[in-house]
Specification:
The protein is of the alpha/beta class. The protein is built from 12 helices and 13 strands. Strand 8 and strand 9 form a beta hairpin. Bound molecules: pyridoxal-5'-phosphate.
Length: about 400
Amino acid sequence: MNQAPVSREAVLSELERRRSLDPDIHAGRLFGLVYPSGREDVEELIREVYESFLFHNALNPLRFPELNAIEREVIQMTADLLHRTPTERHAGSVTSGGTESILMSMLVNRARAQARGITAPEILAPASAHPAYAKAGHYFGMKLVQIPLDEHFRADVAAARELVNPNTAVIVANAYSYPHGAMDPVEELAALAAENGIACHVDACIGGFVLPFMEELGIEIPLWDFRVPGVTEISVDIHKYGFAPKGSSVILHRDDDWAWLQTYFYSEWGSGLYATPAIAGARAAAPVVASWAIIKYLGIEGFTEITATLVEATNRLRSAIDAIDGIDVVGEPIGPLLALSSSTLDLFGVGDALEARGWHANRNSDPKGLHLMLSPVHAPLIDELIADIRGAVANHQASTSDEVRYS
Ligand SMILES: Cc1ncc(COP(=O)(O)O)c(C=O)c1O
């Protein structure tokens, strides 16, 4: 490094200029990736809390016992939300995100399978499952077996039944899936897992902070959480619809002993016992404490209010899209996520036209189309979005690229 010092002003102005080259995260023109709450009071609270824990390290619970207690309260509040029976010990851990939560669950499931004598453990997951399961397979030497989807883009239970074999360590169910917003038949998949004495991981990374509040609103939601017998793990991201800054997810286990299986212990190095519940060593405390603050501040009532806004915005968007000739909503999305497909229109061309109007709509490859995941900031912009989708459908060119990248 041969960086000569520059002034504070120069640092700030360069970063401000460079940040402005990327999309504005608060403008409501992005779908997924960022989840602004649309509430200035919430963001102000986060900023204040974040700053006061900016340099803390969540690594050593003995050195920062109060920080550790705050983290355990985040886990406990999330566990309560998902109807896990309260216990003395701990239910899981806070991780850096959905991927790390899934990795830790798959690691525990590998250990449980190995304890049953399985030497080549498999993950049986819907074809719509997040790449984190493939990553877990790659990291931990587990084979990923895909469950085909049914005509509603949900995991096909009959096909899953055919694919279960003596090496299956865990069956995965989405509540709900990223590509299509589809709710897998969790009760049936969990029952299949239980019948075979294996685990069932529910991926509620997106749905975990949406579905409970939809239920509060009186919307009928099939059971998917710890109320379902056979569900052994749930991953739920606070940094998505919990509106926390990036770096906050929770992995929960039904059984305390399984949560302990996550912890890695080592003492052969000259500085004593070292123990961590997940992949990270030194770990940012600020996202954990910000999660605690948001959950306390919004409470069930606040989250439910925000979810009502999301549901209303999704319903308006859905009705408008249903009325457009040539565009279909894929499957039966349960939450604020619409995948769009078409047999007559070049939806990637429509996506390019939306891009020209300032909307960063994501692309799906299967079925080919667009992917719109709503945040509360989209609610006031729904009429504009609908008008622009209509305009883009009426007036677009052939797509400039067929490339689909997760974004
Ligand atoms: C269903 C689902 N699971 C897991 C993840 C992974 O989460 P993260 O990006 O926080 O690692 C995502 C991310 O979008 C997701 O949609």
